[in-house]
Amino acid sequence: AWRCWKANIPWRVPGLPAPVENMILRYVKQKADWWTNVAHYNRERIRRGATVDKTVCRKNLGRLTRLYLKAEQERQHNYLKDGPYVTPEEAVAIYTTTVHWLESRKYSPIPFPPLNYKHDTKLLILALERLKEQYMAAVRLNQQQREELGLVEQAYDNPHECLQRIKRHLLTQRQFKEINIEFMDLYSHLIPVYEIEPLEKITDCYLDQYLWFEADKRHLFPNWVKPADTEPPPLLVYKWCHGINNLHDVWETESGECVVMLQTEFEKMYEKVDLTLMNRLLRLIVDHNIADYITAKNNVVIAYKDMSHTNGYGLIRGLQFASFVTQYYGLILDLLLLGLTRASEIAGPPQMPNDYLSFRDVRTEARHPIRLYTRYISKVYMMLRFSADDAKDLIQRYLTEHPDPNNENIVGYNNRKCWPRDSRMRLMKHDVNLGRAVFWDMKNRLPRSMTTFEWDNSFVSVYSRDNPNLLFNMSGFEVRILPKVRMAAEGFANKDGVWALQNQLTKERTAQAFLRVDDEALKAFENRIRQVLMSSGSTTFTKIANSEWLRGSPCRMYVRLLVSAGCSLPSQLSPGVR
After folding, report:
1. Which among 428, 425, 398 has a CA at the least distance from the CA of 414?
2. For the chain, how many helices (H) and strands (E)?
3. Cα separations (Å) of 284 from 108, 279, 446, 554?
4. What is the CA radius of gyration of the chain?
5. What's the CA gap between 236 and 510, in Å, rounded?
6. Residue 21: which of 12, 29, 30, 33 has the closest Cα?
7. Which of 54, 210, 447, 557 has the most other CB atoms within 10 Å of its CB?
8. Which tens digits make up the pLDDT trace of 466-521?
9. DSSP secondary-structure letter at 503?
10. CA dihedral defined by 162, 168, 170, 171, rounded to 10 degrees?
11. What is the rounded distance in angstroms from the CA atom of residue 478 to the CA atom of residue 448?
């Protein structure tokens, strides 16, 4: 009975007396409560950074995987029972919006890869190299990994045969082997890792390279879709700061103008992907055979030890082409947020698209409150500028629906606590109401059946007469922009962690951005070091010695090196290691 509970399988023994069955069920219920509570208690200790044994970590990961899969199976069951959650009206509106956008961009769908496609072998080599590079540092390989490497080598030797097989599978294969799931423990959170049949993986990897190459040629993704090769994360932050600073009259507050920086995230974006709707949307940009292959590949059995279920709702993120599907799905959500007109103005004309964070002219830039927009996978960054009347109008609309007679909107308003008090956002009534109104307006543009915004995971910074700083967090950096016109006594600081932001037209320094690494990024670094330390007992000396994280925690690492090498004193190590 207990094992059935853990595996989420119904337990019944025919002919068992009712009192005995009730007693067993009561025992299972109590044991389940204890088992779950211990799992959560230990996870909290691991997350907090308390000293935890390696075995405890491993067992806790297994328990959390089971609890996650039990919840996931219930979610899938509820979808089959109550779904689909997207209403016909919403689906038609989303589909129509996407059609209009693609027509306005003069987009031609990606065809099925032809038999004699001229970039075939190049794309295949790129795909195989990508599959191969994960095994570069691997010391031990399991059966499946060895099989995958063998198939990769075989594909290098017979590329034409491999390409024929790939295209045959894309055209005809709609049933796939089950996918095994495990979780990678990063201590602060878990990441699902999917083990996919090696032969299928090669097909998926080629499809991924093909879709990205063809989509890039057709300019499917506008300039605001990130990550992109043109901006690695730190450069993206730098460009975003410069983009804000170079907007027309951005720091002007004479007549009560306000600048609002909305930073939020599409919640449950992957989990809420409806595969039927996704198939229809994919058919607009790719050949119907590829769309069917992608959808069928997401509709597979997911297994962990003695647990298994069929995925009928939500995107499997471990598939090679999941990044392409995610960015396309994200683009559709962007269009719902921005509206087709503003999205076209930000993207520029299809024959000559705008550069990132730039407009054709000042008139186009100032035509709409949304001045800048960026989406980094599922994180959304939006810069808005309001005149005093527009801000008043929006606040009025918000307060009509959400009256606030006791000024309670200030309570629970998120702030950036990593900065000194005088550098944070000052919670003035007008600015707080404007921040909440912008968030409310944007949240209402998204259908809940697809995604939503959560206030607790968002931050809205307002720059106004009463607030001289613009704050946000991007790619692991906390940023505070202070314009020159609002600097009281201090001038420009010439020190590390401060950028002087220059106006492109006048070449004058008009603001400066103060940077610091955010707490989450620091925690992630610490947790990576914990991982290296935790695995150091069972891994090779060379692997720890060459670890890129070695610089982060030298003392503890040094002790581990001594232990790994079987030395009791530093003098026993070879001079090179010392």
Report:
1. 425
2. 19, 13
3. 9, 9, 21, 54
4. 27
5. 20
6. 12
7. 210
8. 999 999 999 999 999 999 999 876 678 788 889 999 999 999 999 999 999 999 99
9. P
10. 160
11. 30
Beta bridge partners of 221: none
Residue 509 in tokens: 């320094």
What's CA 478's distance to the chain center, in Å? 18
**Secondary structure of residue 83 in the 3-state scheme:** coil
CA distance 474 to 476: 6
Of the candidates 244, 235, 250, 265, which has an alpha carbon nearest to the alpha carbon of residue 459?
A: 265
Q: Which residues pair with 193 in a beta bridge?
A: 182
Please, what is the end-to-end C-alpha distance for the chain in angstroms?
Answer: 56
SS3 letters across 375-436: EECCEEEEEEEECHHHHHHHHHHHHHHCCCCCCHHHCCCCCCCCCCHHHCCCCCHHHHHHHH
Long-range contacts of 145-150 (CB under 8 A, 24+ apart): 147/198, 148/198, 148/201
569/374 Cα distance (integer angstroms): 53
Q: What is the rounded CA–CA span in Å between residue 355 and residue 145?
A: 42
Residues of the chain falling short of pLDDT 70: 489-490, 537-578
Tokens coding 384:
């808005």
pTM summary value: 0.92
Alpha carbon distance 416, 263 (integer Å): 12
Residue with tokens 């309001």: 386
Using one digit for the tens of pLDDT, what is the confidence trace for 269-278? 999 999 999 9
